[in-house]
Amino acid sequence: QWIFLNDDFVKKEDAKVSVYDHGFLYGDGVFEGIRVYSGNIFRMKEHMDRLFQSAKSILLSIPYTHEELTDLVVKTVEKNGLKDAYIRLVVSRGVGDLGLDPYKCKRPNIVIIVEPLAIFPKHLYDTGVDIVTVPTRRNRPDVLSPKVKSLNYLNNVLVKIEAHLANVSEALMLNDQGYVAEGSADNVFIYKNGKLLTPPGYLGALEGITRNAILEIANELGYDVREEPFTRHDVYTADEVFLTGTAAEVIAVVKVDGREIGDGKPGEHTNRLLEKFRQKVIKEGVK
Ligand code: PLP
Fold first, then answer.
1. 110 and 71 part of one domain
2. Helix (H) or strand (E) run with residue 136 in it
3. Does residue 184 share a domain with residue 79?
4. Structure confidence by residue, pLDDT tens digits, 152-177
5. Are residues 237 and 185 in the same domain?
6. How far is CA 201 from the centre of its chain?
7. Which residues of the chain have pLDDT under 70?
8. Index of the ligand 1 atom closest to the CA of residue 50
């Protein structure tokens, strides 16, 4: 396995970054998770735009253009000879001293990792997942915007810990006002009374690229789809619930905080959207 690390391809065991990197010391940096399907990189432009916007927001200057970085991602995929894989692109602030000051970091560290990935076991796509809501709240948009996909993922990590403690594989975070925001690394949708709803970005959700693809697909299929706030009660009483993300793709949720959703099986709308999503990902992409 070859990793792109700054100007070079290095073997996995040699891909090492200094302990003085501010990504390590302070979570100072940004990242993207991207997917390759049948050799096509799904929505590369959207991922690059989000990466550069995240970086701009935290005043981190990436020493490549969109095109150059896209080219490096494509080359890393090719070098690893994988047709279906997950790509992790990380830009950290780079090496500085022990103080917080990012201006002491002279050059960002750029890492591209490509490898096969399955975050949920395959059978869960047939059965659906059992999830809980947790006390950890999504950070407020006016504090550090959840639109910044930063290396500072501590509240997402806490969500995952809380899911483990509850013996389930994923959990939902609420925002500071108690509206449902998103999962630890995925967006949430509910289908209720003939409407498909997902929380608006301003409530504190990352505007996921998979979420956008599902909004597009649902519109094409003629669904009444809205970005609208909803509460846990709406989730408990929904006909269908599902999560979306680059790693998770589209996965049905069949139980939330012990409340069975619908008839406890992945619903017809979720299955239909997943099927259309799978058709879309193999049709699209650079290369
Ligand atoms: N929400 C969070 C916090 C995430 O980290 C991710 C993963 O990237 C998502 C949602 C889903 O976004 P996307 O579909 O772009 O992967």
1. yes
2. strand 129-137
3. no
4. 999 999 999 999 999 999 999 999 99
5. yes
6. 14
7. 285-287
8. 15
Torsions phi, psi for 191 (to 5 deg): -115, 120
Cα–Cα distance, 34 to 39 (Å, whole number):
12
Round to whole Å and give the CA distance between 262 and 168. 19
| 82 shares a domain with 16 | yes
pTM of structure = 0.95
Shared domain for 85 and 139, answered yes or no, is no
Contact by Cβ (8 Å): 97, 20: yes
Range of the domain at 247: 124-283
- pLDDT tens sequence across 242-280: 999 999 999 999 999 999 999 999 999 999 999 999 999
Q: How many CB atoms lie within 10 A of CB 225?
A: 19
* Cβ(132)–Cβ(168) below 8 Å: yes
Give catalytic status of residue 276 as yes or no.
Answer: no
Please choose from 34, 53, 144, 206 the residue to mutate so as to test ligand 1's pocket, defined by most ligand atoms within 8 A of CB.
206
Pocket test for ligand 1, best of 88, 151, 210 (most atoms within 8 A of CB): 210
d(CA 244, ligand 1 centre) in Å = 8
Q: Which atom of ligand 1 is nearest to the CA of 33?
A: 8
